[in-house]
Amino acid sequence: MNSLSQIFHAARAESGFAALGRHRLKLVSFLGTASAGKLTIFDTDTAPVSGTYAQSTTTVTVTDVGHGLSTGDRVGICFSAGTGGNAQSGNYEITVTSADTFTVTMLNSDTITGDPACLYVAYTPAAGVTPKRHIMCKNVAASDTFANDIKIPNEGFIFSNGIYVNMTNLAEVGLYYE
Fold this sequence. Notes:
- A hairpin with a 2-residue loop joins strand 8 (95-98) and strand 9 (101-112).
- The protein is globular, with a radius of gyration of 17 Å.
- It has 178 residues and is mostly beta strands.
- A 6-stranded antiparallel sheet has the order 7-6-10-5-9-8, with no helix packed on it.
- It is built from no helices and 15 strands.
- The protein has strands spanning 8-12, 16-20, 23-32, 37-43, 49-63, 74-79, 90-93, 95-98, 101-112, 117-123, 133-140, 147-151, 157-159, 162-168, 170-177.
């Protein structure tokens, strides 16, 4: 990808969409609705999985029935707000505690309850495996119905698997990428 690459534009007014393959994201534009919304972006070639979570001290316990993951796998995860706040979204190594739960360790101690939602992508690290990653989560206030642009400086964000966008209560999301 060089300075002469063609810039593509994808815009959707749905729950989510993907631009698969290697890309460089340059700008994200979104339009909210009368309800509070959320924009979540992953570097993945598979749809994110939903679960719930709680945090006690620095341990976040994620519940997803039959998740199929193993200790040492890595997740890119976006946490929604619960009672007490929300855990720090990011990319983490997990510890499996049961067939339905796994944990990640946060830097900061907190107490979050109420079974808030989370959305994640997972992979098993190995030679030649391209990581699936959380890139960003953006909460959008209710009635934020004007155009919002997030310009990514310099060379933009490089996606190895594909750009996957998940939308909640957003009227439209547009991507500008090469």
